[in-house]
Amino acid sequence: MEDLYSIHPGISRGGEGGAACSEASGVAGGASSPPPPPPPADLTELMKAQIAGHPRYPSLLSAYIECRKVGAPPEVAALLEEIGQPERRSGGAAAAGEIGLDPELDEFMVAYCRLLSRYKEELSRPLDEAASFLTTIRSQLTNLCGGGATATSPHSGIL
């Protein structure tokens, strides 16, 4: 148990052996132990800033917006289009980074843009198939009704 306390200085020591524990950690860890790693929130914010500052960020944002527009009502799609316009106009001018400075991040950005593009295609496929099916049905109904009569007329001759 003492080893656990000496590994991570943030773990509190409770109970009766508090003085003994502090002495043991002073011997095991010493005063020259490395500082604890930064909290995950700081690391997350740093990663977000690096992604937002990457030159491919406008492409990533555009691909994300395109995914969100699939199947959205026209009003929502128009709103999403408006949201994406400032990024497209700036053309990445807001991005301060350069491609090649962080090859791992460059690879991530390219892969994620490609992934979002494929995801949009997969999302769109059922909607495109449904639209095609409905167009075919409408055409067949028009042909059955003789072209002149509408499907909603009560005396179209179809029982």
TrEMBL record:
* GO MF annotation list: DNA binding
Q: What keywords appear on the UniProt entry?
A: Nucleus
Region: Disordered; residue ranges are: 1-41
Compositional bias (Low complexity) = 19-32
Q: Where in the cell is it found?
A: Nucleus
Q: Which InterPro entries match?
A: KNOX1, KNOX2
tRNA-binding found in the keyword field: no
Which residues are in the KNOX2 domain?
95-146
> Which parts of the sequence belong to the KNOX1 domain?
45-89
Keyword Phosphoprotein among record annotations: no
GO cellular component: a single term: nucleus
- Specify the signal sequence span: none
**Where primarily located?**
nucleus
| Name listed for the protein in its UniProt record | Uncharacterized protein
